[in-house]
Amino acid sequence: MKKDVKGQVSVFVIIAVVVVVVAVGIVYFNGQSTKNDIAYFNSLEVKSDFDRSQALILNCYDLIADGSLDTVGIQGGYYDDAKNKRELDGDYEGVFIPYYYYEGEINIPSREDIEGNMEKYVEDYFPDCIDSIEMEGFDFNYRKGSASVSIKEKSVEFEVSSSVDIRRDGHSITFDLGDYPLPKNSALSDIYDLAFFISDSHNVNPAMYCISCVNEMAVEDDLYVDVKYLDDFSVLTIISENYTSSESYSYMFLNKYTGREVSTTLI
Q1: pLDDT digit string (tens) for 182-237?
Q2: Among positive and negative, which fits the CA dihedral 102, 106, 111, 114?
């Protein structure tokens, strides 16, 4: 009986040793495969194309970040539908502008709301941009992840917690987007403060706001304010700037009055 026990122990030991050896072999093989892939993509024949593939991915990143900024600008902080909105015609046909003030009700998105809308835009459009990359011999696979957007003073910072698998000739390497935080020059913070001031002033008096205060804030932050009076007592406000990039940036929102107010301005 003791002999049988010893035999079983010996078998278990042998099996354990075999399992360890196999496991070590798998780890070694995977390690070698990774090293081989890195060596392949950094070889003289491939490296220039590999560098270009990474540049194309980062270009997607830049385009999507700009797209999110433009979208929340034109649509008053929103990517998804706002609670109250209006489709404009003319130069802005097809664009839905939110009402920040609607006949006594204030619906101004918070900074966190705007950041969340930008994050959703990035998460929705990044995969499509990666899929659109065409490069002979290369395949790109976007691993879905999450985006983080933070509105700072004079900038908006983007981070994407995801990666892209780059494949060629049976080799694969992972490009980690988390290693590339992207700050964008932006006056969105100052623009939001001014938009908030204009609409939130109606909490105090729904018929007026301080024009001289708005002018002072705009001059201080190098912003421009344009007001357009529409039908049905709606007022379109466009706040813009042209110093953070080569193209001007605009942020738009609406305020709707009942028509019973004595005035919608105060000097």
Answers
A1: 999 999 999 999 999 999 988 777 767 788 899 999 999 999 999 999 888 999 99
A2: negative
Cα–Cα distance for residue pair 202/206, rounded to 1 Å: 4
Segment (H or E) for 171: strand 171-176
Is the pLDDT at 11 greater than 90? The verdict is no
**For the chain, how are helix, strand and coil distributed in percent, rounded to 5?**
45, 30, 25
| Measured distance CA(43)–CA(58) in Å, rounded | 21
pLDDT at 1 over 70: no
3 C-beta neighbours (distance < 10 Å), count: 7
Close Cβ partners of 225 (under 8 Å, ≥ 6 residues apart): 194, 214, 215, 218, 237, 238, 239
Position 62 pLDDT exceeds 90: yes
pTM of the model: 0.82
CA distance 223 to 240: 6
At residue 232, the pLDDT reads: 86
Q: Is the pLDDT of residue 40 over 60?
A: yes
Q: Please give the average per-residue pLDDT across 38-43, as a whole number.
A: 93
Cβ 216 vs Cβ 237: under 8 Å: no
Displacement of CA 232 from its chain's centroid (Å): 35
State the Cα–Cα distance between residues 205 and 217, nearest whole angstrom. Answer: 20
Place of tokens 């813009």: 240
Strands 105-106 and 224-229: unpaired
